[in-house]
Amino acid sequence: MTEKRTPNLLVEPNKFCPGCGHGIINRVLAEVLEESGLADYAVGSLAVGCSCLMMDTFGTDWVQAPHGRAAAVAVGLKRMRPDCCIFTYQGDGDSMAIGFSETLYAAIRNENITAILVNNGIFGMTGGQMAPTSLPGQRTTTSPKGRDAGTTGQPLNMVDQMKHLPIGYLARGSVASAKDINKLKKYIKAAIETQMNGGGYSMVEVLSFCPTNWKMSMEKSVAHVQNTVKNIFPVGEFVKNGERTDA
Amino acid sequence: MTQNHELCKGCGYCILQCPKDALSLSSTVNRKGYNVVDLDQEKCILCAICYTVCPDSVFERVEA
């Protein structure tokens, strides 16, 4: 029986709401960095939003990027320090709304960085406004009658934007069950390995929940991700070692 | 499994995922003001699924 201890990279208790998916993703990322022996060589490019609460609680070096520009900052870091493990940690509002261009162009140029995009379908820190990834019919503070796909378009699927590009690794995981979390750990590990082997751009999108702004109980939030969100955003590995897997 | 009640925020994700129903929300309140989760050591099989799903690092599996 192996020991399961909290990673040393989590230097303080996190500051997220009860039931937030960020806490789980933080721990998985910390485990991967420690198991890969990269804890001292990892530099994160931090987005704006709930993710910037990690600045004090997650023990790697951080650069606070301007809103949406985490991918661009990470590219600069990687070009200056190619020996370091450079990753971005962004929410969907940061990476897919204001930062859509930077996120996508880093992939188009096949920059050798790892992007972790946390997709919870809503703007969390600012109080639950509609995000590009909000589902059709989803009620948010800026779409009180439900998102109207006719005027605001369909949810943005970042994996579909990227899977045709010549990149190194692309996957989408979720935190909606213990099994999913174990798979997510494999995805993040593969993404970090791709970067350290010089395999080009790697991205892992994570379907997370926001019980606070969804105004749902934990039970309902988990069921919502499992039964509704996963149908619109399928999970799996889409690009592996530069080859499409057609998942 | 060991528990650090002071980190718990009472979200109940572990209660949903525990295969043996060894976890339940108690009436005990920690210093943050959250109701904490109670672990029934009798039912626990040390699978550490609670460690996997907990967002707040409440659980740890240590060598007995």
Number of strands of chain A: 10
Q: How many domains comprise the coordinates of chain B?
A: 1
Q: What amount of the residues of chain B lies in strands?
A: 25-35%
Q: Order of strands across the widest beta sheet of chain A? A: 2-1-3-4-8-7-9-10
Task: Give me the secondary-structure category of chain A.
Answer: alpha/beta
Mean pLDDT across all amino acids of chain B? 93
Strand residue content of chain A: 15-25%
Tell me the major beta sheet of chain A. Answer: 8 strands, mixed
Distance between the termini of chain B: 9 Å
The low-confidence parts of chain A are none
Q: What structural category arises from helix and sheet content of chain B? A: alpha+beta
Query: Largest beta sheet of chain B, briefly?
Result: 2 strands, antiparallel
> From the alpha-carbon coordinates, what is the Rg of chain B to the nearest angstrom?
11 Å
Low-pLDDT runs of 5+ residues of chain B are: none
Order of helices and strands of chain A: HEHEHEHHEEEHHEHEHHEE
Q: What are the secondary-structure elements of chain B, in order, as H or E?
A: EHEEHE
The CATH architecture category of chain B equals 2-Layer Sandwich
Helical content band of chain B: 10-25%
Please compute the radius of gyration of chain A using only Cα atoms: 17 Å
Q: Oligomer, anyone?
A: heterodimer
Q: Terminal Cα separation of chain A, in Å?
A: 34 Å
Tell me what the structure shows:
The complex is a heterodimer of chains A (247) and B (64). Chain A is 38% helix and 18% strand. By secondary structure, chain A is α/β, with parallel strands linked by helices. Chain B is of the alpha+beta class. Helix content of chain B is 16%, strand content 25%. Chain B has a two-stranded antiparallel ribbon. A two-stranded antiparallel sheet of chain B has the order 2-3. The longest helix of chain B has 5 residues, at 13-17. Chain B is globular and about 30 Å long. In chain B, 39% of the residues are buried. The model of chain B has no long low-confidence stretch (mean pLDDT 93). At the A-B interface, helix 1, helix 8 and helix 10 of A face helix 1, helix 2 and strand 4 of B. Chain A: Residues 133-144 have a biased composition (Polar residues). Chain A: Residues 50-206 form the Thiamine pyrophosphate enzyme TPP-binding domain. Chain A: This is 2-oxoglutarate oxidoreductase. Chain A: It holds the Pfam family TPP_enzyme_C.
